[in-house]
Design brief:
Structural class: mainly alpha
Number of helices: 20
Strand order of the largest sheet: 1-2
Number of domains: 2
Strand content: under 5%
Helix content: 55-70%
Length: about 375
């Protein structure tokens, strides 16, 4: 594991120092203010701007929001954006760096950060921002913003300001942010088919100022607004709108009407991943075994069954799920989508190929035995 796990644990342990520093109202006010300001910087900066280019802004504000976000000690802006872009390319697949499905909840929540293989920053993925010298400077001195903010907290409110104002808000920010990687892929509702486990979680949305509308975000990643419905509170977006009135940000991107109505066709990558999820509900090994065991009942040899399978004559082949059965399963598993037929067709083909390869292997083995 990466050696920086020790400072991470020390930050948590440092919160207990409030027993000695005391908890002043001034320090609590700093804690609340820093939580809100830096959560906005994470959502509007790290995520919606640097990872997804969901709006445009000036070079000055770009640096300010990067500095504030980096003061949370969640590594550099370029590292964060590069990892997040990788996550969207491979969300909830084995290549995803923090998927609860493959590595477990704790690893997806925090463990993955401290493994050496995740420490490097793929600057190619963020070449659009790596060209700015000031962002590369922040990348090289990733903890400097955190030390600056911590020092200001100490100057304003003493040890209580440092412990309660800075450390408490930093730890709260850690786990609120990390819950989007972990809890938002485990608990919540799915309005859209996205090919992954992303979910909308209203509680996380409140805690993270709008980031909890995670299934919405995965459905249309480049939107500056993640709460698509009027009742889906998205404080980060409201703040961005206010900043747009002042001319600080502009070109706020929104989801098209067809996405809001859930009538958009899915990308081929999403169809493929969703079809694989559907096909995984059926065991090719069990189906192939049942087909082989029914030889005497049906009079079909394994070779005959393989030919029927290759010709897609599914109604005459016992134990092989029909397309209608896959369609019924898909309607129960997935949210409404106009691409449901494409998903079912892809899943059926995937299942046919898997069962066919198993039967072909048995036919080859029988022919080898006969030939011997």
């Amino acid at each position: 594991m990466y050696p920086q796990v020790l400072p991470f644990l020390l930050v948590h342990a440092g919160c207990v120092a409030a027993i000695w520093s005391g908890v002043s109202w001034q320090a609590i006010a700093i804690c609340v203010a820093l939580y809100g300001l830096r959560m906005f910087a994470i959502g509007a900066g790290y995520h919606r701007y640097f990872s997804h280019r969901a709006y445009a802004t000036s070079r000055t504000f770009q640096f300010i929001v990067a500095f504030l976000a980096q003061s949370t000690a969640q590594k550099s802006v370029l590292w964060w954006a590069a990892k997040h872009r990788h996550h969207h390319l491979h969300s909830d697949t084995e290549q995803d760096v923090h998927s609860p499905r493959h590595k477990g909840f704790v690893y997806s929540h925090v463990g993955w950060i401290f493994y050496r293989q995740h420490d490097a920053t793929d600057l190619v993925k963020v070449s659009d921002f790596a060209s700015y010298p000031e962002l590369m400077w922040l990348h090289r001195f990733e903890l400097l913003p955190a030390f600056v903010i911590a020092g200001l907290c100490f100057l304003i409110a003493g040890w209580s300001g440092l412990v309660v104002g800075f450390l408490w808000s930093t730890v709260l920010l850690y786990h609120a942010t990390f819950c989007i990687n972990s809890l938002a892929h485990v608990r919540g509702r799915k309005r859209y088919v996205t090919g992954d486990d992303s979910r909308n979680n209203w509680l996380l949305a409140l805690l993270t100022m709008g980031e909890g509308w995670h299934n919405n975000h995965h459905a249309y990643q480049s939107s500056a607004r993640q709460g698509f419905r009027w009742w889906e509170v998205d404080v980060t977006y409201y703040a961005l709108v206010a900043l747009s009135w002042l001319g600080i940000v502009w070109d706020l991107r929104k989801p098209p009407e067809r996405v809001l109505r859930n009538e958009h066709p899915l990308a081929s990558r999403v169809v493929k991943r969703t079809a694989e999820q559907l096909a995984a509900c059926f065991s090719p090994e069990s189906i192939a075994m049942d087909i082989k065991s029914s030889v005497y009942e049906t009079g079909l040899s394994v070779r005959d069954a393989l030919v029927l399978l290759q010709q897609r004559v599914d109604l005459r082949l016992p134990h092989m799920p029909t397309r209608d059965r896959l369609l019924a399963e898909a309607r129960q598993m997935f949210a409404k989508t106009r691409s449901l037929d494409a998903i079912v067709d892809r899943a059926y083909e995937h299942l046919v190929e898997s069962v066919g390869s198993l039967l072909a292997r048995d036919v080859l083995a029988m022919e080898t035995v006969k030939g011997g």
